[in-house]
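hiii so um. not sure if this is the right channel but i have a protein structure encoded as tokens and i wanna go backwards to a sequence. like what aa goes where. can anyone help
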């Protein structure tokens, strides 16, 4: 599932720490004005560049990040993993989904941040963090990690997943459904959970002493010894 468990743990930890940092900067009275100033500037820029074609695309991207798309994709991934009997991958993805959904409501209620004014679409609830950004990152990044096999092909799909999550989150900013910091925190949190749960479960399974066994660079399988070549008649000492 993961090539380097330790590196995945470090990266996921950095992503989650980034989400926490954005939250702290937002709620701390000392730094809140600076965060809001950046959000206000981005809000004004989004309003200034508003146009019909971009709005249509943004609405479509926002829909792709909605529950109407996320949940069918998640269920399909879980069914596929169960059919393949990849129970560790199934557990990791399920935990990423459940933990992300469990965090959205309480954090929104605790921060209780108002939505940006003049939204181009209908919105409900508090603004921070962006549920679309969290769900989109968990689904896009998580599905690629647990379904695709490690290698160059998965790496390309990982890049596409990240690009989709970023563009979808920015569509919410363009539509003025969220402040920029809402989507930044949400994307970091979703990606951190999507990567963190597989890394954590693999670390628990294989132990923190080392990464899962990998192929021997000389071509032999781990746990086996290369057979000694018998000396030929010419090579035997006389």
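sure thing!! here u go:
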């Amino acid at each position: 599932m993961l090539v380097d468990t330790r590196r995945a743990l470090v990266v996921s930890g950095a992503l989650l720490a980034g989400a926490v940092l954005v939250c702290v900067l937002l709620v701390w009275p000392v730094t809140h004005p600076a965060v809001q100033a950046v959000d206000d500037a981005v809000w004004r820029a989004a309003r200034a560049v508003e146009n019909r074609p971009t709005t249509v695309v943004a609405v479509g991207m926002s829909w792709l990040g909605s529950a109407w798309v996320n949940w069918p994709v998640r269920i399909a991934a879980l069914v596929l993993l169960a059919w393949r009997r990849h129970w560790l991958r199934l557990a990791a993805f399920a935990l990423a989904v459940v933990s992300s959904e469990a965090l959205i409501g309480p954090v929104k209620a605790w921060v209780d941040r108002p939505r940006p004014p003049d939204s181009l679409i209908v919105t409900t609830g508090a603004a921070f963090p962006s549920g679309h950004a969290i769900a989109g990152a968990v689904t896009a990044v998580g599905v690629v990690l647990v379904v695709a096999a490690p290698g160059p092909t998965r790496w390309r799909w990982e890049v596409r997943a990240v690009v989709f999550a970023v563009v979808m989150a920015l569509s919410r900013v363009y539509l003025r459904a969220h402040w920029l910091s809402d989507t930044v925190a949400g994307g970091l949190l979703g990606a951190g959970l999507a990567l963190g749960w597989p890394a954590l479960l693999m670390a628990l399974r294989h132990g923190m002493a080392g990464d899962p066994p990998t192929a021997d660079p000389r071509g032999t399988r781990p746990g086996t010894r290369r057979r000694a070549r018998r000396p030929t008649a010419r090579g035997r000492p006389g």
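oh and The two ends are 54 Å apart (CA to CA).
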